[in-house]
Amino acid sequence: MRFGTIDGRLALVRDGLALDVAAHSDLPADPLAALARFDELAAWAASRDISDFSAKGVLGPPVPNPRQVFAVALNYRPHAAEAGFQPPDEPLIFTKFPSCIAGPITEVTLPPGKPDWEIEVVAVIGRGGFRIGRDRAWAAVAGLTVGQDLSERGVQLRGAPAQFSLGKSFPGFGPIGPVAVTPDEFPDRDDIGFECHLGDELVQHGRTNQMIFPIDDLVARISAVCPLLPGDLIFTGTPAGVGNRRNPPRYLQPGETLVSRVEGIGEIRQTFR
């Protein structure tokens, strides 16, 4: 199943067409409410034929208003190395505030400072839960989507110790999309390739099998402390290749375009001003 939103309403998406969920079922239009009934949603979606799909529209974020947005620092060994750190023994969890979440095709106003890119595979929580065992963690995930953990490094690294959340939560700094794809759609849900281009330059690439803490492990560890709610997002970490670790450092500039792609999902595109 591939799902997204059009005008904030949950839709199934196939072959460039969409099907408004609430208009064709007794499921709600609100993504959070529909994801809370994920088993019903998945069963209903499986019965839909492509002939049912006709709507077109501009896709927004698969979850426009998540209640919790978690993110993971240094979850790929090459990125930890380029940042000058040893790989962590425990996941380093921070938050992006939900007001930064945006859709897949956006124009982002750059704040002053050192704005940087970080491509990430983002897990969208479905039924959720508290203290979810790792053996049940994938069942709590509704889908995976493409994300950018855009970061203004000056604010992020200000202070001792540094705090991350504000520097990663400027307007538009959490674009996701274009759709979320259920884990069963991937040949191997633990081995998904992704890449990020800034203009014509490939700046990042990797595979999710290179994570230090895989997605199911993150779900189990986070839910051991915080109940995961339908529609919550987990930005699962970025590989090597971010701008502030280049020599010399390289930051986003007005007029540039960033394109982020994940196998089996699609791409998002941000233009900066």
From TrEMBL:
Record carries keyword Transferase: no
Q: Which domain of life is it from?
A: Bacteria
One of the entry's Gene Ontology molecular-function terms is: hydrolase activity
Looking at the keywords, is Cytoplasm present?
Answer: no
Fumarylacetoacetase-like C-terminal domain location, by residue? 69-272
Keywords, A to Z, come to: Hydrolase, Metal-binding
Q: What family is it from?
A: Belongs to the FAH family.
| PANTHER family assigned | FUMARYLACETOACETATE HYDROLASE DOMAIN-CONTAINING PROTEIN 2A, FUMARYLACETOACETATE HYDROLASE DOMAIN-CONTAINING PROTEIN 2A-RELATED
Provide the protein name. Answer: Fumarylacetoacetate hydrolase family protein
Q: Which organism is it from?
A: Paractinoplanes globisporus
